[in-house]
Design goal:
The chain is α/β, with parallel strands linked by helices. The chain has helices at residues 13-17, 30-45, 59-68, 117-133, 146-156, 159-165, and strands at 2-8, 52-56, 74-76, 139-144, 174-180, 183-190. A 6-stranded mixed β-sheet has the order 3-2-4-1-5-6, with helices on both faces. Helix 3 (59-68) links the parallel strand 2 (52-56) and strand 3 (74-76). Helix 2 (30-45) crosses helix 3 (59-68) and helix 4 (117-133) crosses helix 5 (146-156). The two termini are 25 Å apart. It comes from Weissella sagaensis. This is Histidine phosphatase family protein. Pfam families: His_Phos_1.
Amino acid sequence: MKELYLMRHGQTLFNQLHRIQGASDSPLTPQGITDAQEVGHYFEQINLTFDHAYASTQERASDTLENITDQPYTRLKGLKEWHFGVFEGQSEQLNPQNDPIRHSYGDFFVPFGGESDIQVQQRMNQTLTEIMEKPDHKRVLAVSHGGACFVFLKKWLPFEEIQKQVPNFHNCCILKFAYSNKEFKFIEAINVKQI
């Protein structure tokens, strides 16, 4: 059984300012750097090592990974955050209400040059499956983004279970999955700050 540790990046300036980030970028805050370093210390304390590490091509994800470990890693566009089109960089107050059936923003951003939840989910699932299918990938760390990780998790865990098992998906939260036969099984959410 293989293991995937899928992590949300550290806190950024846009997180602090409550701005929509998506495909745009903003730097990690001092708190974001500290939290990522704490994750690295946690992995060292429990003697957890990774065969391979990956990050989205966005700076906030790769900077998070570089504050966790100095091991080499690969940047992949498939791990990028949900693209929110013309809403990028705007106030989070402009976000729509969640679609009551899909429990996400659904197709809302598509007419504005963004992606749908299904597009992001398919992209994330394809990318992570390709990673985990590599023969020498037994335990993998991948740093991605809140929206992208959430819709990926929603593919493999019912929304009601997400509410129970992942009540706080904060920056630097880690989602642990087991992987076998092209399927992911959610194991647990790890919030190092709460350990």
